[in-house]
Structures are given as structure tokens and as C-alpha cells.
Amino acid sequence: MATDNGQHATAVTSAPKTRPSLSPQEKKALYQKLRERMRRQILEVAQWPLGRTPYWARKQDRNEMSRLDVLGFKIVVDDPKMHRWSANGRKEDGTFQLGDLILMDIDSDSYEFYLQDNIERSDALVRAAK
């Protein structure tokens, strides 16, 4: 029994179950979804617009942020009405932030070029050292 300002005594009861128990098939499907969610990496970007490449950057590193800006990376700002991005760390302003990291993106062709250029320069350094 609980009292209301010492005036009235009322009985406290548990809320009734609002959800019926799941069938074995429903439980199996639910558990599978939960297992998939548990396996997901914290920095995984599950969905992004076609032709774009996601990239997590350290937002406190001003030199890195400036370098990425010069290369054409932009901070991802997702539309709250039509989510085109799926990642952890969604903020009210539409950005994605996890600790010191912020989600950025660049067009996929530019990203592929930068990766290939890094490989070629690395290979050239190895050849020059021989």
C-alpha cells in the first residue's frame, strides 16, 4: 500500500503485460536480429548513398581535418526525414559522432584514386630503397 501525502491509501499493482509471449519462430527471428546487432562493429557504416565512400576522421585533429577538407572530404549531415546513412553515433544535427570521431564522406572515384596513388607511391619508395 502507498499513501498520497498521508491522506489516502492506494494499492500498488504491476502493470499488465502489454505484449503476448512470442512464438518459437518469432523468438528465433528476434534472436537472429539481436545476434546480428551484437556482431556489428561500433564503427561500421551499414548504409550510405551510392557513389559516396564513408570515412571516420578524428575531429580534434585540426591538421587531419584540414587535409581531408583539401582532398574533398565533407562531414556527413544526414536528412532527419529521409535517412540515407546508417551508422552509430547519430546526433540531432544529422552528423555522426563517436567519441573523437566524426563521419565524413567523399565521392567514391576520388577515394579510389587516393588509395591507388598511395599504393603507387609506396611501391615507388620500396623500389627506390633496393
What does this structure look like?
By secondary structure, this protein is α+β, with helices and mostly antiparallel strands. The chain has a domain at 44-129. Helix content is 37%, strand content 22%. The chain has helices spanning 24-39, 62-71, 108-129; strands spanning 2-4, 8-10, 45-47, 52-58, 74-75, 86-87, 97-98, 101-107. Strands 4, 5, 7 and 8 form a 4-stranded antiparallel sheet that branches. Strands 1-2 form a two-stranded antiparallel ribbon. Residues 1-24 have a biased composition (Polar residues).
List keywords for this structure.
single chain, 130 residues, alpha+beta, four-stranded antiparallel sheet, two-stranded antiparallel ribbon, 3 helices, 37% helix, elongated
**Low-pLDDT residue spans:** none
Number of strands: 8
Provide the gyration radius in Å. Answer: 25 Å
Binned, the helix content reads 25-40%
Q: What is the mean predicted local confidence, pLDDT?
A: 87
Broad shape: elongated
Distance between the termini: 85 Å
Sketch the major β-sheet.
4 strands, antiparallel
Estimated structural class: alpha+beta
List the helices and strands and how they pair.
Elements: E1 2-4, E2 8-10, H1 24-39, E3 45-47, E4 52-58, H2 62-71, E5 74-75, E6 86-87, E7 97-98, E8 101-107, H3 108-129
Antiparallel strand pairs: 1-2, 3-6, 4-8, 5-8, 7-8
